[in-house]
């Protein structure tokens, strides 16, 4: 099973407080790495939508640290963390939302070369509790309009709910 | 692991329980009818249903075994909405990344602007 993942696939692990995202990009691993480490490029896409991102601190190297502010209508949200490891195929970093300063997630990004100028991003976020993992899943629920529910069948069929198997990634 | 969403995830981690849920999307069914397609006992199915029941995914009438099992669809709706919304936000972020990557491609195809090496 190796279908393309041109839209983000989300798995919430039932046994550990992890969220996994898989997404394919029309880019080389080098380009994807650059878009994650170059401050100017990163600020352009990290979002969220409608927010201006200002990088306050940015040292995307092993042992470095980062902090950015996302602002909308005068409200600012701060995020910070450390780069535990930065290398061309892998970035490991901590992530704290300053609204919950005691909470910290460990994020692991890997760039898998699919050949022909395509790369699969694997992003894994390990929260420090199920409560905070599920708060991340819930966050953003208050914004936006009700868009109707996805069919239960498809949710079950492609394993989005119960991400115990790695089948979709293999 | 006491929060509802985690219980739901845990309950759905098992393939048999997922199949039971899928069966119940067609409508309420008795334990006997749910057990019919499987080579396992009604007791074993009952045990799996108990896990789903504790997670709030299904409910049963007072008469226990004989009363039909009912899927609590709103629990799924809630969870589906959470994951869907999260997925949408992630996808929106990666569409912006797509655009940035496409521009990088253009830069490389034409003249590559001298960008300072960072980090």
Provide an overview of this structure:
The complex is a heterodimer of chains A (170) and B (119). With 170 residues, chain A is an alpha+beta fold. Chain A has a domain at 25-140: START domain (Alpha-D-Glucose-1,6-Bisphosphate, Chain A, domain 4), CATH 3.30.530.20. Chain A is 18% helix and 40% strand. Chain A is built from 4 helices and 8 strands; from the N terminus they run ββααββββββαα. In chain A, strands 1-2-8-7-6-5-4-3 form an 8-stranded antiparallel beta sheet. In chain A, a hairpin with a 2-residue loop joins strand 4 (65-72) and strand 5. The longest helix of chain A has 9 residues, at 29-37. Chain A is globular and about 40 Å long. The N and C termini of chain A lie close together (7 Å). Chain B is mostly helical. Chain B folds into 2 domains: 4-71, Winged helix-like DNA-binding domain superfamily/Winged helix DNA-binding domain (Arc Repressor Mutant, subunit A, Orthogonal Bundle); 73-111. Chain B contains 5 helices and 2 strands. Chain B has helices spanning 4-11, 15-24, 31-35, 42-54, 73-109; strands spanning 58-60, 69-71. Chain B has a two-stranded antiparallel ribbon with strand order 1-2. In chain B, a hairpin with an 8-residue loop joins strand 1 and strand 2. Chain B is elongated and about 75 Å long. The mean pLDDT of chain B is 80. Classes of the chains: A alpha+beta (170), B mainly alpha (119). At the A-B interface, strand 1, strand 2, helix 1, helix 2 and helix 3 of A face helix 1, helix 2 and helix 5 of B.
Describe the structure concisely for a colleague.
The complex is a heterodimer of chains A (170) and B (119). Chain A is built from 4 helices and 8 strands, in the order ββααββββββαα. Chain A has 170 residues and is α+β, with helices and mostly antiparallel strands.
Question: Could you tell me the strand content of chain A as a percent range?
Answer: 35-45%
Q: Rg of chain B, please?
A: 24 Å
Strand order of the largest sheet of chain B: 1-2
Give start-end ranges of low-pLDDT stretches of chain A. Answer: 141-170
* CATH topology annotation of the largest domain in chain B: Arc Repressor Mutant, subunit A
Shape of chain B: elongated
Mean pLDDT of chain A: 79
Write down the CATH class of the domain at 25-140 in chain A: Alpha Beta
Structural classification of chain A? alpha+beta
How many domains of chain B? The number is: 2
The proportion of strand residues of chain B reads 5-15%
Radius of gyration of chain A: 17 Å
N-to-C SSE string of chain A, H for helix and E for strand: EEHHEEEEEEHH
Query: What's the overall geometry of chain A?
Result: globular
